[in-house]
């Protein structure tokens, strides 16, 4: 069977599944609004409604399944644009020598490696300015991929930045108060069950004056562009997941999770509610994703 025919068959087979799931999701959302007693126990896993204590297990399974193909799929799904988004993200953070970064959901190291390179480009660090980064992820499989990449690319302690790898939950960090000057989370916060708890923990571990930054898929304000984006997301990305990673469902979930995520203004309000000030956001690629920034003041 030719690649074109295979793609068409996969799309036909899965389109009905997507429509059924979307209909169920809308029905579930309506049901959730009418039943306060269920809301405290239910949350979204893509377009499905699941118990809160089950979501982290399902998310863990998704990323454990796709860990070894995660970076390949990022390139395929975004045509490599995710690399530009992450470069811009690091440029906006603009770390200096002496920055102590917590790279949350940083598994495969994309943000950490950019952080190290950024510091390298600043030139030699003063003797009294020791920089560090703690790469934290709830999934050990993602961290293992990151460690291998770090070794292959030479991102070790010899680079002048102390790098630590930690398996931990963004909603309940086993880290001291006020121990980092910067906190980044890129394409990870939407997979957490309680976004408010993630933000509270970020606020807790940051020093006064510390900066919180989030890079996440968001909502395109233009309806026509959003429609085009939806067609690509639901009809093409799961197919790429099947062809390149041998996995359909994890990538269907990833697409669905983007649609369930709060829009730019709502996330801004949540960050402010956590205590951060001077909260701003910047849309990238028409709002396909956005950078949110806030300070602990």
Shape: globular
SSE pattern, N- to C-terminal: HHEEHHHEHEHEEHEHHHHEE
Quaternary status: single chain
Number of helices: 12
Level-2 CATH architecture of the domain at 42-71 and 81-218 and 262-295: 3-Layer(aba) Sandwich
Average pLDDT reading: 82
Level-1 CATH class name of the domain at 42-71 and 81-218 and 262-295: Alpha Beta
Low-confidence stretches: 6-11, 13-39
The CATH topology label of the domain at 42-71 and 81-218 and 262-295 is Rossmann fold
Sequence of strands across the biggest β-sheet: 5-4-3-6-7-9-8
Considering the protein shown, what is the CATH homologous superfamily of the domain at 42-71 and 81-218 and 262-295?
Vaccinia Virus protein VP39
Question: Care to give the gist of this entry?
Answer:
The protein is of the alpha/beta class and 297 residues long. It has helices at 3-34, 36-39, 52-66, 70-78, 81-93, 110-121, 140-153, 195-205, 223-235, 237-245, 249-260, 264-273, and strands at 42-45, 48-51, 100-104, 131-137, 161-167, 180-186, 206-217, 277-284, 289-295. The chain has a domain at 42-71 and 81-218 and 262-295: Vaccinia Virus protein VP39 (Rossmann fold, 3-Layer(aba) Sandwich).
